[in-house]
Design brief:
With 209 residues, the chain is of the alpha+beta class. 75% of the residues lie in helices and 10% in strands.
Length: 209
């Protein structure tokens, strides 16, 4: 009886082994293959992810470098523009404004205006031109004071026998009516002339590297 039971156990064992071989083992093999394939696939995915990450990083670095170059270029250009603006501002405040004040003050007194008119009339007569002239002075100066300094002989050279009042702050304008020419020795013309004359030295003194 015992032998019969053992034989039955053996049969069950054999049946189990057959089932394992025929069913479980192929399934395990298939499962192992699936796992192996999954591992390979996972490694591929990881490698692809690494490659993409490296590319993204490289692209980001290139973009950052590009932006930095653009930023540096913009900063450099902005710096140059700011420096140029600053130079112009310094020139305007220290040179032009001071020269303008100096010229306004120096060219708006009756004595200076009378001498300027006398010099122009003398130069015109020396060239043999007909003295059909008008002399214009700033409104800030009394015409009577200039006329007194010019005297009758010079006033007779003027069309109106007197100086005229203009809009300039300093200096004079002389009009030659026959030739239709205006000789501009106003404060604006004097400032332009003086600025061009001293600007080079001014830049050398203030902006020399």
């Amino acid at each position: 009886m015992k032998q019969a039971v053992e034989t039955g156990k053996d049969k069950v064992k054999k049946i189990c082994e057959v089932l394992r071989k025929e069913t479980l083992e192929p399934a395990m093999t298939e499962a192992q293959e699936i796992l192996d394939n999954a591992k390979v696939k996972a490694e591929q995915i990881i490698e692809e992810a690494r490659s993409k990450a490296a590319k993204i990083k490289a692209d980001a670095e290139k973009e950052t470098e590009k932006k930095q170059k653009i930023f540096q270029s913009s900063l450099s250009q902005g710096g140059r523009q700011s420096l140029e603006w600053l130079k112009q501002e310094i020139e305007q405040r220290l040179l032009n404004q001071n020269l303008a004040k100096l010229i306004d003050k120096a060219s708006s007194t009756p004595e200076v205006l009378a001498k300027m008119i006398e010099a122009v009339i003398g130069a015109i007569k020396a060239e043999g031109l007909e003295a059909d002239l008008s002399a214009i002075i700033p409104a800030s100066v009394e015409a009577r004071a200039v006329n007194e300094l010019l005297g009758k002989e010079l006033l007779d050279s003027l069309k109106e026998k007197s100086v005229l009042i203009g809009t300039m702050k300093g200096g004079i304008e002389m009009k030659l009516h026959k030739e239709n020419i205006t000789i501009d020795i106003s404060d604006t013309a004097l400032l332009d002339l003086m600025t061009r004359y001293v600007r080079k030295d001014f830049h050398k003194f203030f902006f020399a590297k």
